[in-house]
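Troubleshooting log. The previous structure file for this entry was overwritten by mistake, so regenerating from the original sequence record. Sequence copied from the archived sheet and checked twice against the printout by T.R.
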Amino acid sequence: SVAIILTVTLLMVVGVTALVISFTDNTSDSSQMDHIGGDFTLQSSRGPISLSQFRGKLVPLFFGYNHCPDVCPTTMSNVAEAMSLLTVTERTQVQPLFITVDPKRDTAEHLGKYVAFFHPKIIGLSGSSDQIRKVAEKFSVEFFRDKSTDVEDSYLISHTSYLFLINAEGDVIDLMSDHTSPSDIAETLRQQIPSL
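Regenerated output below.
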């Protein structure tokens, strides 16, 4: 009888879990993404850049920093490779942006060199700590300095690592990660590129 009770309990747990997963799937990204995003203006190595400048284009947007040891270079490499998988015409409709979460070390000029290493189309954006914080809040991005790694100016920053996809109207329509393959990123971009 103990075995029967355990089996029934297990089935109940599995059933509840399935309902939770189903509910989460059905209400997931679209409803969550309705509440994130918005226009902003930050500094690039070429001068001030606003998200609204790219209306009519797709914008893959990532928050990271130059000294990031793994997630940031992986994601930027994936974005760069995805760009190379697009046709020249398709690439004209896509503008990748990289916003630093470490403005203390990442000046606009420094970021310009960093992102150019991955792909010439990627624009790096910096600003004051307050400006960066406000833009991050718009996208529900969290970041904090890892105190356990603090050694003067050598430290790590933990941060949200989504790759946001912003459509031609300026709305966030998809979230990808550092595990999203270049081919999957390219295919997602290709499906969302405005009619040429």
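The first strand starts at residue 41 and ends at 44. Archived copy saved in two places this time.
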